[in-house]
């Protein structure tokens, strides 16, 4: 029986979360209660919400969790951009990660549309 771990968007979210956490390990200590904690939390929330949404019973709950995953992805993009502007990551790394998050957001949108269609929503 398939699980949330079989979803490509979940696999991508986990990979990106690990990348963000690895970057956070190298950030200066003075960023501990700002950029580090916020980046780690938002990047962790993406796969958490995907897993929660996948396992929700009602379509409304499922869709709402995927909306949350999408919002957390956008927040993480913002944190990565801030890391670049503060000189903690190079532009190429920042752009690549933000592009990967944008692809993830598109995948999440696709899954939301799939759920809406399955629920019987009009397109």
> What percent of residues adopt helix (DSSP H or I)?
over 70%
- Our estimate of the beta-strand percent is under 5%
Shape: elongated
How many strands appear in the DSSP assignment? 0
Mean pLDDT: 96
At the first level of CATH, the class is Mainly Alpha
Instruction: Report, as a whole number of angstroms, the end-to-end distance.
Output: 29 Å
Taken in chain order, the helices and strands follow as HHHH
Q: Which segments are poorly predicted (pLDDT under 50) over 5 or more consecutive residues?
A: none
How many structural domains can be distinguished in the coordinates?
1
Counted by DSSP, the helix tally is 4
Major β-sheet, in short? Answer: none
Structural class computed from helices and strand pairing: mainly alpha
CATH topology grouping: de novo design (two linked rop proteins)
User: What's the CATH architecture?
Assistant: Up-down Bundle
Query: Rg to the nearest angstrom?
Result: 15 Å
CATH superfamily: 23S rRNA-intervening sequence
Fold and architecture overview:
The chain has 123 residues and is mostly helical. The chain has one domain (4-119): 23S rRNA-intervening sequence (de novo design (two linked rop proteins), Up-down Bundle), CATH 1.20.1440.60. Helices cover 80% and strands 0% of the residues. The chain contains four helices and no strands. It has helices spanning 8-25, 32-55, 59-85, 91-119. α1 runs antiparallel to α4 (91-119), α2 packs antiparallel against α3 (59-85) and α3 (59-85) runs antiparallel to α4 (91-119). The longest helix is centred in the C-terminal third of the chain and has 29 residues, at 91-119. It is elongated. It starts with 7 loop residues before the first helix and ends with a helix. The mean pLDDT is 96.
